[in-house]
Amino acid sequence: MTDGGGTAVIDRSGMGALIAALAARGRTVVGPTVRDGAIVLAGISRDEELPYGWGVELEAGRYRLRAREDGAAFAHSAGPQSWKTFLHPPRERQWSADRGPDGELVVTEDRPLSPSYAFLGVRPCDLRAIAVQDRVLTGGMYTDPAYRGRRERAFLVAVECTEPGATCFCVSMGTGPAVGPGYDLALTEVIDADGHRFLVRAGSEEGESVLAELPRRDADLATRTVARERVAEAADRMGRSMPLVDLRQLMGETLTAERWDDVAARCLTCGNCTMVCPTCFCTTVEDVTDLTGDHAERWRRWESCFDRDFSHLHDGPVRDSSRSRYRQWATHKLGTWFDQFGSSGCVGCGRCIVWCPVGIDITEEAHALDRERQGNAPLHLERPR
Predict the structure, then answer these.
(1) How far is residue 162's CA from residue 142's CA, in Å, rounded to a whole number?
(2) Same domain, 166 and 103
């Protein structure tokens, strides 16, 4: 039995039971697993597929797996994927068209059945990112029905962070390391002299129902205390930080800053930062045909504001320089996103720092812009710790 507050403790066997219970409800369970030298998100069917005993070493432009001695499953930072990959896929067919024997063209809209996902291991920053995408893709006048279908059927198992990476800055963005609202179940992993276990809290009726099916025990005071302390310690060990200023105002007041030239000299405009970002949502469409011209398809795919043709008009691209494209991305993410959606578009996960080939650090750039605004910016700023 739980303690009446939808909170309990499970051990490793309980984690296996959780995966089995979610699968028994017809859900495709997706969680972190080790593959190709990284901790990636993929379908899992057994708890042994979780990255027990693996952590990561992160820095700007650098990602490495490392073995852990404690056997933790969730003591790692965000990998190259986010849950956006499943809720807002990189490529999705919109319709197909076929020419019949009589020459008539028949267009068929794609309306695939929305999969029923269970996401296991959603970090607090990614939980907030899902909420941000909810506002973007379902909260306005024009909603994305495919996204809405997948999102409404998704079951979220969040995991609080107890060991942040060197590129994490969720504290600055108010998105972690403790989980916020929006989860069905929330886990806090605890490993100490009393064993390896997970504090579990239910955040929805279905979460309560799933928790009731698991082998569990009441949440004891010691486990609650240790879990709370580990999360608090993680907040104090954050690897990066944003300047303690109004970021929206900072972006608006530094549009002509010289720092944009400095970052443009380093930026490859590859778009990696937008591809790994859990909140970037831009797409484009491409039409393809077969050689006969009797079959055509329209596909929607992710697009990046770093692509030169992203802002192409009849007379050429609006943002032709790398300076203008990086500035567009940063000022939108940290500034004008507020005007559109009422929040920042950055959740502090640090992926854009890790997966930038030249190690450009958005927190470093924000600090440099703030220093230049104050009139004492150096050409290069030591990365904040």
Answers:
(1) 38
(2) yes
Same domain (yes/no): 63, 195: yes
Residue 201, token pair as written in the block: 């809290």
For 25, 31, 96, 259, 373, the CA distances from 377, given in Å and listed in that order, are 56, 43, 54, 9, 8
Q: What is the DSSP letter of 247?
A: H
Instruction: Answer yes or no: do 296 and 332 share one domain.
Output: yes
To 5 degrees, how large is the angle CA 30–CA 36–CA 37? 105
Q: Do residue 186 and residue 254 come from a single domain?
A: no
Look at strands 195-202 and 295-302 and give their pairing.
unpaired
Specify burial of residue 355 (Cβ count, 10 A radius: 0-12, 13-18, 19+): buried
Dmax over Cα atoms in the chain, in whole Å? 76
For residues 219 and 8, is the Cβ–Cβ distance under 8 A? yes
Q: List, for residues 80-110, the tens digit of each pLDDT value.
A: 999 999 999 999 999 999 998 888 999 999 9
What predicted TM-score, i.e. pTM, was given to this entire model?
Answer: 0.92
List the domain range (segments joined by +) for residue 189. Answer: 7-236
Question: Residue 381 falls within a domain, yes or no?
Answer: no
